[in-house]
Design brief:
With about 100 residues, the protein is of the alpha+beta class. It is about 15% helix and about 30% strand. It contains 2 helices and 4 strands; from the N terminus they run ββαββα. It has a 4-stranded antiparallel beta sheet with strand order 2-1-4-3. β3 and β4 form a beta hairpin. The longest helix is centred in the middle third of the chain and has 14 residues.
Length: about 100
């Protein structure tokens, strides 16, 4: 089994906030805000674009209702869509190679 240093250092999430906007026109947004996009999130999304060679990919959004001195707001998180990695057992930790040449008794 390989040891991944990133397991000890959880990555920061790409978080932002949305607050109620002042509508100046009928088509103005109801909410506005900013998102702090982390490099690892962008790199994963870019990799997914390269792997699919498509014009768009699906990302995940999550939101939490909050309130502070400036009023209510939504905390939002952008994350890449989870893609299951193929499991490949590490031969050094897999004991099957010891027993492959032996018959069952």
């Amino acid at each position: 089994m390989t040891f991944d240093q990133s397991d000890l250092n959880p990555k920061k999430k790409s978080l932002g906030i949305l607050r109620k906007a002042t509508k100046t026109k009928e088509r103005s947004p109801d909410l506005t805000g900013q998102l702090k996009l982390q490099r690892h999130t962008m790199e994963t999304i870019a990799k997914q674009f390269e792997e699919t060679d498509g014009d768009d990919i699906v990302c995940c959004l999550a939101g939490w209702s909050n309130h502070d001195g400036n009023g209510p707001y939504l905390t939002i998180e952008l994350s890449p869509k989870y893609v299951r990695r193929e499991y490949r057992p590490d031969q050094r930790s897999n004991l099957s190679f010891i027993f492959n040449d032996h018959e069952e008794v």
